[in-house]
Every structure is written in structure tokens, then in C-alpha cells.
């Protein structure tokens, strides 16, 4: 009897992904812009935010529940703009708690700017950097993930940075905030900053059709030949969607476990019966990581 993956010593288990027709793991909960599936809402957010950034409009906000793809989107924005010669991007994955100065120091460090111990001194360092950089026709971009953790004092300092101007009179940097829905509540309590927000977008859970498309896209991105028979049969999608409620991170986690289980059991495809059996046998798969 084939041993279940969840009972296998994972420290010695090395999946043979080639058996699934892929060259790398197709599903992971780590943010990787190479595997970002563009749902309708994601495309809309990308389009709106990209336009505002490149038009120099200031601050853009993207909100979504846990697992809807905000961190992947943050990675995509950073990867896209940091490689361009007309942009320089700084990414703050998680803002420091409460202190406006600590946030400014973190942004400065990400840009390679000297950090200072006083708020005004740090603002001056950043202003010099931002204005000097934009004078060379390079636009600085700050991306802050988990922005729902920002405090009013930190919004105040971000607003002060937005007051800095480039030599042509435009904003000296662009800002993208990504966070949970609480971010919108916090912004309403920081009216002066909220008035500077140029666009807002939201990321919601996927519908069943998008769930199927995400799975197929990630398999293709991992190297699977689209001419091969489907790895996930159509009847597998609905139980996956029901279990994950359409949250991309949860979809990827479940599909990762399903693929690993398929490798261990030696099957050729994942259908409804396979998904149902796995969920019945391994209801604690989320804790098995």
C-alpha cells in the first residue's frame, strides 16, 4: 500500500515534478510574479495603478482579504518598475510599527539613502534623493505591502513626501499601498492623506472559472505542455473552489498538496473523486506544512 505523502518524511522527500510534465513546482504560497494569474480584477488593478504611477499621479491603493494576491501583486510591481531605466523602486514588505521616523528610515534604506535619527533630517535626506533622482528623469516608486498596519503618524510622513516636487513641478515620487480592507478604514481617519489617493482597487476571491484558469496558467508557467491531457480534470475544479472559497493562496496550497499526493500515489490525473478523497483523509493538510 502506497504511503500517504502526509505520513512521509518530508525532509527526505524530493518531488519528481517531471512526472507531472512540469520543470518546477507549479503551486506555491510564496509570492512569485512569474506565476501571477491575471483575473479580471487583477488586470483592472494593474491597469489603473500602472497608469497612475506612470502619469505621476501620486498614491494608489489596492485592498483585499488575506490570500487574494496582494503580495504577489506587490512583487509584480517591484519587478516591473525596478528593472526599467526610468524608475527606481523600493519595496517595504511590512511597515515598522507606529513610528513615522522608522518608516522614513526604512524607505531610505531601501533606496540606499543615508538614514538619520531625526525626522526632519531624514525628510531632508529623502527630499534631496527624490529631487536629484527625478532631475535625471528617473521616477522613484515606493511600494508598501501590509499597509493596513500603517498608523496616522506614518500617513502624515508619506503625505509630506508627496509634497516634494520634481524640477518640472510634478510629484517627486509615486506610492502604491497594498493591504487588507482595514486600510480603507484607516485612510478615512487620515483625511489629509486620503485626499491624495489617485485610485483605489480591490481584489476579491476568484469564481470557479477563474479558479480553473489559475490552475491551468500555473501549470503552463511551470513548463507543462498545453497539448498534454489535463492534469486537473474539469470535475475537480468545483470541490477545489468550495474548499478554498476562491482565495488564490488557498487554491495554490491545496493544489500543491494534491499534486504531491498524486506523485506519491502514482496517479495520472486529479479528478473530483481524488480531491474529495484527499480532503476526507487529510482534513488537516493546512497544518501539515
Automatic annotation (TrEMBL):
Q: Which Gene Ontology terms cover its molecular function?
A: ATP hydrolysis activity
What Pfam families does the annotation carry?
AAA_22
Where does the ORC1/DEAH AAA+ ATPase domain start and stop, copy by copy? 56-184
What InterPro entries would the database entry show?
Answer: AAA_22, ExeA_AAA_ATPase_DNA-bind, P-loop_NTPase
* Designated name of the protein: ORC1/DEAH AAA+ ATPase domain-containing protein
Which organism's genome codes for this protein?
A: Candidatus Promineifilum breve
Amino acid at each position: 500500500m502506497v504511503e500517504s505523502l502526509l505520513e512521509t518524511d518530508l525532509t527526505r522527500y524530493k518531488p519528481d515534478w517531471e512526472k507531472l510534465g512540469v520543470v518546477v513546482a507549479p503551486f506555491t504560497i510564496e509570492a512569485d510574479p512569474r506565476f501571477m494569474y491575471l483575473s479580471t480584477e487583477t488586470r483592472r488593478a494593474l491597469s489603473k495603478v500602472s497608469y497612475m504611477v506612470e502619469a505621476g499621479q501620486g498614491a494608489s491603493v489596492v485592498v483585499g482579504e488575506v490570500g487574494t494576491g496582494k503580495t504577489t501583486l506587490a512583487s509584480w510591481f517591484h519587478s516591473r518598475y525596478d528593472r526599467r531605466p526610468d524608475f527606481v523602486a523600493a519595496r517595504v514588505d511590512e511597515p515598522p510599527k507606529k513610528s513615522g521616523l522608522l518608516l522614513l528610515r526604512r524607505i531610505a534604506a531601501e533606496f540606499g539613502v543615508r538614514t538619520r535619527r531625526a525626522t526632519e533630517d531624514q525628510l531632508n535626506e529623502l527630499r534631496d534623493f527624490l529631487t536629484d533622482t527625478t532631475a535625471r528623469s528617473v521616477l522613484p516608486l515606493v511600494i508598501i505591502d501590509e499597509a493596513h498596519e500603517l498608523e496616522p503618524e506614518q500617513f502624515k510622513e508619506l503625505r509630506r513626501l508627496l509634497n516634494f516636487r520634481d524640477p518640472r513641478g510634478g510629484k517627486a515620487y509615486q506610492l502604491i499601498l497594498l493591504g487588507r480592507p482595514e486600510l480603507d478604514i484607516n485612510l478615512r481617519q487620515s483625511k489629509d492623506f486620503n485626499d491624495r489617493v489617485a485610485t483605489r482597487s480591490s481584489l476579491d476571491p476568484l469564481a470557479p472559472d477563474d479558479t480553473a484558469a489559475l490552475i491551468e496558467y500555473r501549470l503552463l508557467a511551470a513548463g507543462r505542455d498545453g497539448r498534454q491531457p489535463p492534469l486537473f480534470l474539469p470535475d475537480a475544479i468545483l470541490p477545489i473552489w468550495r474548499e478554498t472559497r476562491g482565495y488564490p493562496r488557498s487554491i495554490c496550497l491545496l493544489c500543491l498538496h494534491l499534486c504531491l499526493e498524486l506523485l506519491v500515489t502514482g496517479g495520472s490525473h486529479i479528478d473530483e473523486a481524488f480531491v474529495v478523497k484527499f480532503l476526507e483523509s487529510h482534513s488537516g493538510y493546512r497544518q501539515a506544512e
